[in-house]
Amino acid sequence: MLQRLIQRPNCLLNVRNRHQFLTALLVNLMAISHGIGVGWLSPTLRKLQSQDSPVGFTLNVNEISWVGAMLGLGAVTGNVLLGCLIGRLGSKLCLLFLAFPNTCFWLLVYFAESVEYLYVARLLAGISSGGMYIVHPIFLSEISSANIRGTLSSMLMLYMNMGVLLGYIFSTHLPYFLITWLVICCPIAYFLSVLFFVKESPMHLIRKGRVTEAHKSFRYYKNIKDDDHEMDNEFEAMRIALTKGNQLEDALTLKDFCTPAAVKAYGIGLVLIMTNQFSCLFPMINYMSDIFAQSGSTMDPNFCSIIIGAVQILGTYGTTLLCDICGRKLLLLVSTAGVTVSLIAFGFFTHYAGIYDLRELSWVPLVLMSLYIFLGNIGLIGCFFVCLVEIFPLKIRAKAASIAIVLTSCVVSLLLLIFPLCLAHWGISATMWSCAGITGGGFCFLLPFLKETKGKSMLDD
Length: 461
Known about the structure:
The protein is mainly alpha-helical. It has one domain (2-198, 252-449): Up-down Bundle (Growth Hormone, Chain: A). The protein contains 22 helices and no strands. Helix 3 runs antiparallel to helix 10 (185-197) and helix 18 (328-353) packs antiparallel against helix 22 (428-449).
């Protein structure tokens, strides 16, 4: 039975998929390091606001909002920078570059003497993460087979959420200065792994005219033996399609971005971005401890954050299992509907907790937030980057996806800046209901207009 399972084409341990799976594991070490930085911030911000701040200075609400926003500003920079470089330098060099700003982030956290150190640190972390969200989806989509592409691409968010959980645990239970030296091993291990064990994408090598190297890379990622010529026809079809694609790219005009298929993809992409971001899943992760502190629950906010970190992993792991079985659309619809209901319920609880004594129901915010995070990660988070790459026509896919990710980072920056201000000025209930309204609107749009892209070839429109 195990043998039959492994022989299934969509099994990650299938002989044709093993090198793709191993490569995905290695490149996503960066996602773990970034996730630790995101999770680390939530409990640490509460410490930095207290009189017992470990760095010798305290932060006010405006400084906190800018510490949060700098990640988004850095992500925009990373999106643009790596989006420009990936076509010229290739995925491997861009993957290697990501280790440097992430390493500098942790060094600045360690040596911070004022809030400006934290601003620059978060900016560098954003550059690393912004580049990662450009390079990883494109690289993994180019090396993976169509029947496992959704699984491998969704692993990015699974690894990040593993890092978020570690960040919650580390910042809750370990000294501030010890965390840095533990975590800095992660980007170093990532750099060495990519340098020695990851090969360049065969698609990039074909585009650069290095056909012999591309053939070797193709055979490596398909795990083909030297005397096996079974899949040579597939490589030849890829070479012809991409060579034609290069000629088309040279002639790329504004008209190519204005075709009916492209315009429809822009609309779907914009709604995906707005729904993904205004569901506030990412800001919630960054400010989770503060949210629980304001929710009316008497449970320890840091303990609740750790539970939420574990729930995130379950959600994104569910995506890796179901993305290539159930499809992207079903997961996204279930996710948006569940997030909408959870946010409405959370808003009502916090509203009535300010009027009545609900201490006996202190467990309710944790349950509602767990449901919100689980359902959000199973679709809106786990399938987001997969869909964002797949919905655009082939001729404009690379440029359109890069622009969409830049827009995503801009919205991230805005939300990280205004979210703590909304909590302070509107209150937690109104903030939750506002997020629910936008997410519900996204569900109503995606239900009729989003096309299923499961099994779609990256050489097709």
